[in-house]
TrEMBL record:
It comes from Maudiozyma saulgeensis. It is a single-pass type IV membrane protein. Component of several multiprotein Golgi SNARE complexes. It is found in: Golgi apparatus membrane. InterPro entries: Golgi_SNAP_su1 (IPR023601). This is Golgi SNAP receptor complex member 1.
Amino acid sequence: MSKTISSSFVTVRGQAISLETQTDSLLSRYSTFAQTTSSEQTGKEKKLDTQIENTLKKRQDIIDSLNDICNENPSISASKLSQLQRHKEILQEHWKNFQNIRSSIQQERNRLNLLFSVKNDIAQHNSNTNINDEEEYIQDESRRIDQSHNVVDRLISQAWETRDHFTAQNNVLNNVNNKTLQVLQRIPGLNHLLGKINTRRKKNAVILASVMTICILLLFFTW
């Protein structure tokens, strides 16, 4: 009976040792996801996470079986009890490592998602700022165009006023000329008198010019 219990213990313990080795390998692979975390859990990561958790639960079942074997045999050796305790400690360590790696991956994923969110917010803010700048620029240009149109309108208005003023002056001069002609036509001999006056002025101018020329020549020759 003792040999049967011992053989059963060794067989079940062999399964525990094999799964412990397998768990070490799985945890090593799982830790790489903490270094190269993506914003979303990949299918490979999820599959490995589930595999490790199932393996740890299976090991717990095996330890429970070993514990039952020990309880059913009060005379079991102290070495086997020590081995059982060691398997329990290793299982606890593996659970702890698994939880730590899983937590690290999640923290890194949260950090990446927060970073992406901040970048998106900044990009959105810059996009809105650019839109606002473009709208403000268009409004400024519209105001400048309106001001230019107002200036042109004022210049055109002033040009029309100047034109009207010149037209009015031209009408006044035409009226004066017409009245002068009418006066000259009404007073007989006035044109003749004015002509004589102009002729006398011309003669006086010629005489004055001749006298000045003679004086200059006399001064030149007598100097």
